[in-house]
Amino acid sequence: PLREIIQVLRSVRSGVFDKKVRVTSNDEIGYTGDVINEMNEGLIERDFIKPTFGKYVSQEIRDEILAGRIPLDGEMKTVTVLFADLRNYTPMVEKTAPKEVVKLLNGYFKEMGTEILITEATRAGLRETLSLKALPAVRVKGNAQEIQIYTFSA
User: Fold this and answer.
1) 93 plus 136 within the same structural domain
2) Structural domain that includes position 121
3) Nearest CA to 70 among 153, 4, 150?
4) How far apart are CA 74 and CA 137, in angstroms?
5) Burial letters for 89-117: b for 16+ Cβ neighbours within 10 Å, e otherwise?
6) Tens of pLDDT along 39-85?
7) Cystine design at 134: which of 39, 91, 100, 118 (Cβ 3.0–4.6 Å)?
8) Are residues 139 and 91 in the same domain?
9) C-alpha 99: how far from its chain's center?
């Protein structure tokens, strides 16, 4: 049993989490095998969550949230906001496939020359139209006069 545990732990060290310890006893060795198997399941779940979560928010924001540096219960910030309206957006979205709309929006955001945050006000419309969910996330730089805003991509 110990050799198998060591083999599984070496696999974990090299980034392979799908190996399991066969638990054949109810003693400390069996308990250790159970704990290693649970750890591997957690690592597999983590490896699934990170890229999946990253589809809805930027990698930077994802890492900040997962590290606990962005409070999920909200916080007060002083920010400057620019609102922009896209002419004929609603009729265009009604006639366009969701993936194409996301592609067009990401192209627009790129042309804007800045990173854009899909805020609560715009998320509602996008969610209705594209069935997407984006988490609001804002990073304030310096004296709160400059704000860094993030896009999402599907």
Assistant:
1) yes
2) 59-148
3) 150
4) 10
5) eeeebeeeeeeebbeebeeebeeeeeebb
6) 999 999 988 887 877 677 777 777 888 788 887 777 777 766 666 67
7) 118
8) yes
9) 19
Please report whether residue 74 resides in a domain. Answer: yes
| Cβ contact 130:98 at 8 Å | yes
Would you tell me how many other CB atoms lie within 10 Å of the CB of residue 122?
16
- List the one residue out of 143, 106, 135, 130 whose CA is nearest residue 119: 135
- Tokens encoding 136: 């609001």
**Domain membership flag for residue 84:** yes
Q: How many helices (H) and strands (E) does the chain have?
A: 6, 2
What is the reported pTM?
0.44
Mean pLDDT along residues 93-121: 69
User: Which residues are CB-neighbours of 80 under 8 A, at least 6 positions away?
Assistant: 145, 146, 147
